[in-house]
Design brief:
By secondary structure, the chain is mostly helical. The chain is built from 13 helices and nine strands. The chain has a domain at about 1-50 and about 265-395: Glycosyltransferase, CATH 1.50.10. It is globular and about 55 Å long. The chain binds glycine.
Length: about 400
């Protein structure tokens, strides 16, 4: 009887049935084997051209695509190596993570994009968190200074892109929420609250202008930088201007959850809960919890999935579940997503040039990276697994 009560207590505490359990040890072993394949592939890749290629991004049309450090995805591979080190404590991963992190350093002075949080946060940020290295700390601060230069107090937001100036004047994309984490970190490291103030302003203005009544997010909002007003709301990577591009909803959910962690402002928590409701109660979310690439593509169900969106959403839900009264539900949904990814979307051992997951969609309207492995799907998948492993029921 006492034994039964203990089991019941464990089930109630964890909030999951046995069926949702994930064998993290096994999944990480498999991921490590894949990443070892990738390390060989990356080492053998033809990077002899004039342009310095530093990180893998995707495997498309039979080619491993490597990118320069200035590509928005350059930090994810070092980040994956840091997560493997975090889980295994194996010095092999520490050494590789350090090597690939260093390659991203030139971007600390890049003021031509908002993507510094992805590039520097995932590489140097994780490296600093796990090693406390002072040289990494300096890079993080310099990168935050560079990112801050893209903030305009008239609009109250950071400008995302400098390209395609024929289409927009001061574009801000929902993805930009992810880069605020670097600014919060910089305030912690320096005691200088200007980074924090920029992050909060960006989050507030984005909350006002980027969302529809159902809490789905536009992809791009274009501002008039002279007077700060909104000129246009549109998409770049989604199905249409009024559709809900799946990964964008993931960036929004993750971004506001992180902003709540950093500020404890309840408005961000409510925003994250509302975004979660849009995603999780959506009639177009498949039973296996891996979204189609856009929630509003009229050709659903005959359209590609986006595994990267599921990876971002599951990681965000684990964090949100620790803050929200709906936490048990979020945890259950995140477990289902992670289980689906681990069982149905995982690459066959040794295949896909070492990418861990398959079936992501990068930029469907441009006809590129459709139903392929993407490095950021692998990054957020490992992050979600670590969050699953260390998950503690909120007090
Ligand atoms: N941040 C670019 C993307 O999500 O595709």
């Amino acid at each position: 009887m006492k034994y039964c009560l203990i089991i019941l207590h464990i089930v109630l505490l964890t909030g999951v049935s046995q069926a949702q359990n994930i064998n993290v040890e096994k999944v990480f072993r498999r991921a490590g084997a894949q990443v070892s394949v990738m390390l060989d592939e990356v080492t053998n890749a033809d990077t002899a051209g004039k342009v310095k290629l530093v990180s893998p991004r995707t495997y498309e049309n039979g080619q491993l695509k490597m990118v320069q450090s200035r590509d928005w995805t350059s930090g994810f591979f070092p980040g994956i190596l840091w997560y493997l080190y975090e889980y295994t404590k194996d010095d092999k991963w520490l050494s590789e993570a350090g090597k690939f992190t260093t390659k991203i350093e030139p971007e600390k002075t890049n003021t031509r994009t908002h993507d510094l949080g992805f590039m520097i946060g995932c590489s140097f940020g994780n490296g600093y968190r796990l090693t406390g290295r002072k040289d990494y700390e300096k890079v993080l601060i310099e990168a935050a200074q560079s990112l801050s230069k893209r903030f305009n107090p008239v609009t109250g937001v950071i400008k995302s892109w400098d390209h395609n100036s024929d289409k927009w004047q001061y574009p801000v994309i929902i993805d930009n929420m992810m880069n605020l984490e670097l600014l919060f970190e910089a305030t912690r490291l320096t005691g200088d609250s200007s980074f924090y103030k920029i992050a909060v302003s960006h989050a507030n203005v984005t909350m006002k202008n980027h969302f529809r009544a159902d809490y789905s997010s536009y992809h791009v909002v274009d501002y008039d930088p002279a007077i700060g007003s909104v000129k246009k709301k549109m998409t770049h990577q989604g199905y249409s201007d009024e559709s809900a591009w799946a990964r964008g909803q993931g960036w929004a959910l993750y971004g506001y959850t992180m902003c709540y962690r950093e500020t404890k402002n309840k408005a961000y928590l409510r925003q994250a809960e509302n975004i979660a409701a849009f995603i999780l109660k959506n009639k177009n979310l498949p039973r296996d919890m891996v979204p189609y690439w856009d929630f509003n593509d009229p050709a659903i169900p005959n359209v590609p999935r986006d595994v990267s969106a599921a990876a971002v959403i599951s990681s965000a839900l684990y964090e949100l579940s620790a803050y929200s009264v709906n936490g048990a539900d979020y945890k259950k949904m995140a477990d289902q997503m992670l289980k689906s990814l681990s069982e149905r979307y995982i690459s066959k051992p040794g295949s896909n040039k070492g990418f861990i997951l398959d079936h992501s969609t990068g930029h469907k309207p441009a006809g590129s990276e459709i139903d392929v492995p993407l490095i950021y799907a692998d990054y957020y998948y490992l992050e979600a697994l670590l969050r699953y492993k260390t998950y503690r029921q909120p007090k």
